[in-house]
Amino acid sequence: MIYSDSLGRPAAGKPLAMALAIGSVFTMSAAFAQDKKLESVVVTANRTPQIATEVLNDNVVITSEEIARSGRRSLVDLLQRQRGVEITRTGGPGTNSSVFLRGTDNKQNVVLIDGVRVGSATSGGANWAGIPLSQIDRVEIVYGPLSTMYGADAVGGVIQIFTKKGDGPAAPTVSAGIGTYRTYNLEAGVSGSSNGFRYALRAAHDESDGFSATRRGATGFNADRDGYDNDSASGQFSLELAKGHEIGVNFLHSDLKSQFDNSATFDDRIKQKLSTIGAYSKNQLLPNWTSQLQVSQSQDEAVTDTRTGRTLFDTTQQQVSWQNSFTVAGTDVLQLIAEHRREEVESTTSALNRSRSTDSIAAAYQLKRGAHLAAASIRNDDNSQFGSHTTGSLSYGYRLSSALRASASIGTSYRAPTFNDLYFPGFGIASNQPEKGRNAEAGLYYEDGRSTYSAVYYRNRLSDLLVSAPVCPVNPAAFRFGCAYNVNEALISGLTLGASTAFGNYNLRATLDLQDPKDETTGRQLARRAKRHGTLALDRSAGKLTAGGEVIFSGERFDDTNNRNRLGGYGIVNLYASYDVATNWSIFGRWNNVLDKDYELARNYNNAGSNLFVGIRYGIR
Questions:
Q1: Domain 15-619 in CATH 3.30.200.20
Q2: Residues in domain TonB-dependent receptor-like beta-barrel (predicted)?
Q3: CA–CA distance, 433 with 414 (Å, rounded to integer)
Q4: Element (H or E) spanning 215, and its range?
Q5: What is the pTM of this model?
Q6: In which region does residue 50 sit, left (phi positive, over 0), alpha (psi from -120 to 50) or beta (all else)?
Q7: 3-class DSSP string for 544-565
Q8: Rounded-to-integer distance, Cα 463 and Cα 492, Å
């Protein structure tokens, strides 16, 4: 068995109705505008804190308040609510999951946890099921090619996950919940700061009996329940040695045990371990010069037990990063970055027991002159396996008013083949080449403190795209698992719309993505990606009660590169609520898939039916 992330693809429900709904949000009166709240900050786009309204890259920030209000139990479900995001999953929570950004594949996105890069060098992409939502304080999604900032694989974007940081007096938190499918959750933590020392610790346990991952007709169908059990912990500690000089360490550890279906008679199981640790020193060397050195390591380990035996796929990534930021001309910023990254694989499949390293240097410049914003960056990655790759980007933005701005950008990217793409027996082709991307986009953004609107058009052209096929067109007889191979060219173009506004006690939010993810060599739609998908949500806060509902929809997709296995469109309705029962105490609940919709994110794999989760939470605010 090849351990790999499932391909992901959604489908559409009522795109016209959704477009009209978003249109109505966009035309709502700006009379609801109020004095601006404290401006939010984005770290991921330029690897340094930046006011969100000055970030030229298209981005979304998911705050801790939004995470708590949503009542979501998994990270992929939380991401599914965002514009430009599609997901797929081969069963319930705990099974293999994929996240697609603006039509790009799961492997074409970089995932960071507190600045530490995570992912599998064999299957590619992050282990989404193994990243527990209970440990997450904040998420940033930056769309578009960011190879100049993060190197290989940042073709569709970067998702960075932040765990809790300590600040102020000691603040304990505790939460417990129970739900359908015998689902249980318990989490606790404490955070704070004192005399320059900041600390935060969290631990959690999640488990569920689940439901059958597969349905009749699937290979290896087994009607048993496929549940999961996850124990996780995270922590951050930092010490201010002197003004402008800080050292710190952060970590996350997750142990996930889950069941899946690969045999009709055997209880197939997988144990996945995800761990990150990073140590850093941040120093203000001169009034205009800040230096940050980080040493980090991540591990993505999967041990699978099936009827045919036990398999191991274990990726370790070690990275050293030195970043220097210089303030120039009062408002501009020059960045110089040097990095070294090493990937090592240990596996029961001996052909995968390999390593590779990448040495990188990069420079970036951000300019601010009145209403004008601009940024330029260039990077060279010298890979021990594929040689040298240079990427670059150029962006420009203009403030049309205090609330409205326009921006445009061009950028290049690349993705290195995974070890499975190259070496897995009966599947990999050693001559596969890195993918290369060229992206251009333009966007309009409006934010007045109460309402936000965005419209972004993009064209991402990919050459030497790597696709997987069950029957290998290169030499079918030699590849019993099919193969991964380079196609000439693919084009992913689209329009992504987002809107949110507050009126009275109500908050209305909507997204709509219209995209055309196409393999231009064959003219077929890229697997598991829809041409239309979106969301519509409305919630109301009144005193101690907050309640709301959301609709998530997607158009039809195809489960394969040949577009023979169609996945129908779907629309699901969810409800959520929370109530403050006492100071710092609240109860919360979420009713997912209210209409008990039967739909597929991957062919012949089940999703949860109508289900309920309720709990109680204590936390000092």
A1: no
A2: 180-594
A3: 10
A4: none
A5: 0.92
A6: beta
A7: CEEEEEEEEEECCEECCCCCCC
A8: 11
